[in-house]
Design a protein that fits this description.
- This protein folds into four domains: 187 residues, no CATH class; 76 residues, no CATH class; 101 residues, no CATH class; 98 residues.
- It is built from 22 helices and seven strands.
- The strands form two sheets. The protein has a five-stranded mixed β-sheet with strand order 4-3-5-7-6, covered by helices on one side. The chain has a two-stranded antiparallel sheet with strand order 1-2.
- The N and C termini lie far apart (81 Å).
Length: 509
C-alpha cells in the first residue's frame, strides 16, 4: 500500500516532468519517421557487436575483429533489448531511444523538484530547455552509447546523495554499481569514480580512516567491470582500450574547442568563437567557485544541484586532460554531452535563491530578477529554436544524418557495390574510408584505409598485388592515407566516378 501512496505522491509532484518526458519521446518518433533512427559508423559497431553477442556469444563487430575501442556494456544492453523485444535494434531504435530520452527528461525534472531552493518556474523553464537542446536531440536521435550513459549519470546523483547524507557501507553499494555500469558503457565513466571518491573525502564528521576505507571499497566495486573489460581487451588484442595515438592538440587548443561547444549551446555566442577559450575557462571557474562557496558555507554541499555541479567540474577536467594526452576526435557536442544537464544546473541553479533573496530585501516581487531571468530564458529558447528549425529542415526531407539518411541509401557508389560481385572476389581486397557504411548498406565486407600513423598497416596494403579503394567524399578523413599517396606507388588500372564518390582499382606499377 505504501508504494502506491509513493507513486501517487510522485505523480502529483512531477506531472510536469511526465508531460515533458512524453514530449521528448514523441520528438524522437517524429525525427525517425522519414528514414528511421540515426546510424553512424560507431552505431554499426554497436549494433553488429550486439547481434554477435546474441547469436554467437562473442564480443566482435561485423568485421569479425574483437570490439576494443568501446567498452562492451552498451552492446550487451542492445543485445538484451533485442532479445526481449525480438526486434532488430535498427527497427526498435526509435522506441528505445525515445524511452531513454523520456527517462532522462523525467529524471532531470524529478531531481529539480527536490533542489534546495524549490521553484516551479525554474523547473518548468529547464523542462522546456532540455528537450529542445540540440546536443541532447542529436544524442537521442542516434544509436550511441551516450544515450544510456547520460541516464546513468543522473541515476548516480541521488544514489550518491543517499550515501552522503548518512555515510554507511551498505548505502555505498548502489552508487558504486551505477558507476561500474557507466564505466562499461563509456570509458569516460571513470569520471563517476573520480566524482564519488572526491565526494567521499569531503564528508564531514567521518574519520579519515573510514573515509579511506569507504573510498577504497567504492573504487574497487565501481572499477571491477571496467577492469574486467580492460583485461579482456588485453587478452584478445594486446591493448587496453584499442590502438590509441598520441595527442596532437595542446591543452590550450582543447580548451578552445571546449569553449566553442559551450558557445554553440548558448545563443549569445553561437557562431562567435573569438573568445571561446575564455568562455570555456569562465564557465569552469564559475562552476568551481559556486561549488567551493557552498562548501565553505557548510550548507547544500551534497544537494542534488551541487553534486551535478561537481560532476560538471570533474568531467571537464577529465575530458580536457584525456584529449591532451590521447588522440581522438576534436572535442564536440557529442563528447561533451555528459556535461549538458550538469552544466545547465551549475550555471543556473542559484537563480531561484537569488530572486527570492531580492524579494525578501525589497519586501515585494522583484521585477528586476524576473526580467533578467525571463530575458535569458527567451534568448536561450530562441537560439535553440533556430537550431531546431534548421536541423528539422534536413531531417524531415532526408532523414536523420547518417547511414539511414537518403543521401547514403540512394548513393550511386553504394548501388555500384551492390551490383558488382567481381569486386568481392578473394584475390582483390577492398578498402574504404566508410567501410562500416558499406557493410551496413550492402552487406559487403571491406577494410578501413590504413591510418597514416600505422606504417605496418600501410605496408600490408601496399604489398597486395591489386586492390580496390572505395572513396566517399562525405567521409573524407585526413588521418587516412590519401589517394594521391597511393598513386605514387601503385598504378590506377581503373577509376570510376560517381556523384558521391569514386572506385579505384590499383595494381602494381
Amino acid at each position: 500500500m505504501q508504494w502506491r501512496v509513493s507513486i501517487i505522491r510522485t505523480l502529483s509532484r512531477d506531472y510536469d516532468s511526465i508531460i515533458a518526458a512524453l514530449a521528448g519521446f514523441g520528438m524522437i518518433q517524429v525525427f525517425a519517421r522519414h528514414g528511421g533512427i540515426g546510424v553512424s559508423p560507431d552505431s554499426v559497431i554497436y549494433m553488429s557487436t550486439a547481434t554477435n553477442i546474441l547469436n554467437h556469444g562473442t564480443i566482435r563487430d561485423f568485421s569479425g575483429w574483437p570490439m576494443m575501442d568501446f567498452p562492451a556494456g552498451y552492446p550487451f544492453f542492445l543485445a538484451a533489448v533485442q532479445l526481449l523485444s525480438r526486434t532488430e535494434i535498427l527497427y526498435a531504435g526509435p522506441v528505445l531511444n525515445g524511452l531513454l530520452f523520456a527517462s532522462l527528461i523525467f529524471t532531470s525534472g524529478w531531481l529539480m523538484e527536490r533542489f534546495t531552493v524549490h521553484s516551479k518556474w525554474y523547473k518548468w523553464a529547464l523542462l522546456t530547455i532540455i528537450p529542445l537542446s540540440p546536443c541532447l536531440q542529436e544524442i537521442y536521435s542516434m544509436i550511441w552509447s551516450e544515450s544510456l550513459f547520460l541516464l546513468l549519470i543522473l541515476f548516480f546523483i541521488p544514489a550518491m546523495r543517499h550515501y552522503l547524507q548518512a555515510p554507511a557501507l551498505r548505502r555505498l553499494l548502489l552508487p558504486a554499481l551505477i558507476a561500474a555500469l557507466a564505466c562499461v558503457t563509456r570509458y569516460a565513466g571513470v569520471s563517476l569514480i573520480l566524482l564519488g571518491g572526491g565526494l567521499i573525502l569531503l564528508v564531514g564528521g567521518l574519520p579519515w580512516s573510514k573515509k579511506l576505507l569507504h573510498g577504497g571499497i567504492f573504487s574497487l566495486i565501481s572499477s571491477t567491470l571496467f577492469g574486467l573489460n580492460l583485461y579482456r581487451n588485453h587478452l584478445v588484442t594486446g591493448t587496453l582500450t584499442g590502438y590509441r595515438e598520441k595527442a596532437l592538440t595542446s591543452f590550450g587548443t582543447n580548451l578552445y574547442h571546449y569553449g566553442s561547444v559551450l558557445c554553440d549551446w548558448l545563443p549569445f555566442f553561437n557562431g562567435h568563437y573569438e573568445a571561446a577559450a575564455w568562455v570555456g575557462a569562465g564557465f569552469i571557474l564559475l562552476g568551481t567557485a559556486l561549488f567551493i562557496r557552498r562548501w565553505f558555507a557548510g550548507r547544500d554541499l551534497f544537494s542534488y544541484e551541487n553534486i551535478g555541479a561537481a560532476y560538471f567540474i570533474v568531467y571537464t577536467v577529465f575530458i580536457l586532460a584525456t584529449a591532451s594526452l590521447s588522440r581522438f576526435q576534436q572535442l564536440d557536442s557529442r563528447l561533451l554531452s555528459p556535461l549538458c544537464i550538469p552544466w545547465l544546473w551549475a550555471i543556473s541553479s542559484w537563480t531561484p535563491g537569488w530572486v527570492r533573496g531580492l524579494r525578501l530585501r525589497e519586501g515585494r516581487m522583484s521585477w528586476t530578477g524576473i526580467v533578467i531571468c525571463t530575458g535569458i530564458f527567451v534568448c536561450m529558447q530562441a537560439g535553440q529554436w533556430r537550431t531546431f528549425k534548421l536541423n528539422w529542415e534536413g531531417i524531415k526531407d532526408a532523414g536523420i544524418p547518417g547511414y539511414t539518411e537518403d543521401q547514403w541509401k540512394q548513393s550511386q557508389t553504394m548501388d555500384y557495390i551492390r551490383h558488382n560481385a567481381d569486386m568481392h572476389k578473394p584475390g582483390a581486397p577492398v578498402y574504404s574510408n566508410a567501410y562500416e557504411g558499406i557493410w551496413f548498406l550492402t552487406g559487403v565486407h571491406s577494410d578501413l584505409i590504413p591510418h597514416k600513423e600505422f606504417p605496418q598497416d600501410i605496408r600490408e596494403m601496399l604489398h597486395e598485388d591489386h586492390f580496390y579503394i572505395i572513396w566517399f567524399e562525405d567521409s573524407a578523413n585526413a588521418d587516412l592515407m590519401s589517394i594521391d599517396s597511393i598513386r605514387q606507388v601503385k598504378n590506377v588500372a581503373q577509376e570510376l566516378t560517381f556523384d558521391d564518390g569514386k572506385v579505384y582499382f590499383f595494381t602494381k606499377k
